[in-house]
Each structure stands twice: as structure tokens, then as C-alpha cells.
Amino acid sequence: MAETTPENYLTILTSKDLDLIIFFDACRFSPVEGEIKILRNKEISTFATSTHTSSISLIISYIRKHSNAAVKVIGINIKSAHFIQKISTEIKESADSLITMIQNETR
User: Fold this and answer.
1) CA distance 22 to 20
2) Contact 36/75 with Cβ under 8 angstroms?
3) Structural domain boundaries of the chain?
4) So what's the architecture of 6-105 in CATH?
């Protein structure tokens, strides 16, 4: 939803009484394309790619300062962050699997 500008949603995210905010982001943490990982706080600045206008670490700090919501980052490992490339089969399959998992857990 936020694409390259999650900072545009900070007012919405911090004005709601949310328990949990989850960011899904393209990352580089493994040689396996499409691998999914819940990033620990100290890993976010190391593994998150710089495809956003503002750093994801800065965005999370802002949310934590202005909201009581827990913030998690789920990373999907990528080989390249070029926007002109199509999503690889591995990433598409991982994303579909993650969507199914979330749907099953929230029913």
C-alpha cells in the first residue's frame, strides 16, 4: 500500500488506536531469493533496502514515539531492488504463501 513512501501514512498510523503495525519490505539478508523473515529491531537498518524516501528505521522510531502500537517488519529477500524488474517467481510464490498464512491465521 505505501510503496516507496510509507512516511505519507504516519498520521493515519499514529492517530488510530492500533495494537500492531506490520511493514512488509524487500530486504537483503540471505542468498535465497523469496525467503521470508521477521526482522528483529537491530536487523532492520542492516537488511532493509533503501527503496524508500525515508529510512524504515526512522519511520519505526517515529511510530514508536507517537503510538502504543507494536511495530514489526517482515522482510522478503530480494536479489535486486530495481523498480523496472518484474517480481521474480520466487518472490511471488513467497508473497502468495505469506498472504495465505495471514488469511488463515486471521479467520
Assistant:
1) 7
2) yes
3) 6-105
4) 3-Layer(aba) Sandwich (3.40)
